[in-house]
Inverse folding.
């Protein structure tokens, strides 16, 4: 089974609660892209049109390995105009509200599953089971692009007040898409960490240079916090939400055995996800209504099962809820919200099997469905593999 072989194999369209008008405080654009992730596309638009990045509103980050349609906004005094391959912004009107995650209702997906060995009825059976029983609402691997293992969360270093360790990870974490030269640069920085005079010439961006110049002033906690606060808000948000998502996933993994039998592991980037195939009527009803809080300094009570699981995981990680009060990090803070434990695809449509035009001798299958905001279509696909 293969997905995202071509960008057109994974199509995402946003659904927003947004009224488009002939006039309004904000200009609304439809951003269409392939081979670009959302953050890079917004940075390009910001630079190309001289619009401060924080003035560009968006509802969610979309993957580079897809064809995506999402909405962005800018205050009406700005205009987006550029010419770039694989990314375009079409003006569609005005609104009195800006685009943000608060108005994202969900996403429509059209996914082509390729390299199926035969017209396998098992995948159709699993689609029926997912429609009937839902699937675990994990944050998927895309959320963990900023870390390479369960022990390398910048967010956890910050929570533990290991600020030097957080900064080292910021400079040295190697990502799969890094080219050979970049990997070598990061390895060199790691070897030199602490000798900031030698690291300064290796910096690639203004942010990196400013951080190292701050660290050259001294190694006290004051300068470490000052350096951390130089990390752009968007990046810091990614680091801290990745750790928050990890704790949430671990909580769901701990809770599911109370409701489901025959849980099967599916390998992920930094952790295995436990997936069920069926549920009893009682368990289905319980899980339908179960919401798990994301971690913060103040965790709302849900049940003994859920809250005890959270505390056990935090204890294992060597942290406690009060550690998540990160007031010294100006650009972001941990806020708890309730997230459904399981999710159900809506408006599910399944095509007939067709010969795969990319992998000779194999078949492909197209599926269409809708998921509420925050749920990952790739988790649905992972759930089909058990």
């Amino acid at each position: 089974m293969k997905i995202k072989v071509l960008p057109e194999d994974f199509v995402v369209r946003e659904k927003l609660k947004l009224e488009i008008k002939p006039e309004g405080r904000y200009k609304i654009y439809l951003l269409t892209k392939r081979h670009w992730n959302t953050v890079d596309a917004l940075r390009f638009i910001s630079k190309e049109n001289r619009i401060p990045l924080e003035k560009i509103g968006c509802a969610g980050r979309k993957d580079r390995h897809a064809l995506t349609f999402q909405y962005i906004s800018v205050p009406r005094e700005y205009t987006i105009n550029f010419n770039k391959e694989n990314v375009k912004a079409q003006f569609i009107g005005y609104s009195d509200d800006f685009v943000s995650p608060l108005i994202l209702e969900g996403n429509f997906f059209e996914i082509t599953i390729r390299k199926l060995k035969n017209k396998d009825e098992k995948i159709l059976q699993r689609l029926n089971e997912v429609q009937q029983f839902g699937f675990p609402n994990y944050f998927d691997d895309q959320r963990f692009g900023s870390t390479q293992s369960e022990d390398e969360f910048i967010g956890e270093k910050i929570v533990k007040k290991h600020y030097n360790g957080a900064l080292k990870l910021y400079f040295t974490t190697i990502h799969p898409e890094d080219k050979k030269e970049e990997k070598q640069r990061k390895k060199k920085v790691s070897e030199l960490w602490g000798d900031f005079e030698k690291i300064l010439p290796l910096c690639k961006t203004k942010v990196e240079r400013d951080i190292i110049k701050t660290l050259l002033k001294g190694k006290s906690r004051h300068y470490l916090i000052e350096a951390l606060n130089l990390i752009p808000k968007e990046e810091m948000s990614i680091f801290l939400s990745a750790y928050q998502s990890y704790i949430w996933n671990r909580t769901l993994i701990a809770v599911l055995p109370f409701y489901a039998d025959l849980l099967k592991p599916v390998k992920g980037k930094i952790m295995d996800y436990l997936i069920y195939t069926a549920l009893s009527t009682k368990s289905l009803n319980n899980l339908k209504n179960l919401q798990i809080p994301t971690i913060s300094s103040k965790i709302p009570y849900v049940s003994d099962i859920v809250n005890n699981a959270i505390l056990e995981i935090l204890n294992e990680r060597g942290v406690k809820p009060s550690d998540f009060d990160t007031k010294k990090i100006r650009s972001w803070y941990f806020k708890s919200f309730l997230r459904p434990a399981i999710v159900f695809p809506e408006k599910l449509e399944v095509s007939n099997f067709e010969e795969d035009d990319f992998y000779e001798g194999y078949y492909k299958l197209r599926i269409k469905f809708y998921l509420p905001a925050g749920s990952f279509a790739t988790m649905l696909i992972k759930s089909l593999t058990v």
Summary: The chain is about 35% helix and 20% strand. The CA atoms of residues 146 and 327 lie 22 Å apart. Residues 233-255 form the longest helix (23 residues).
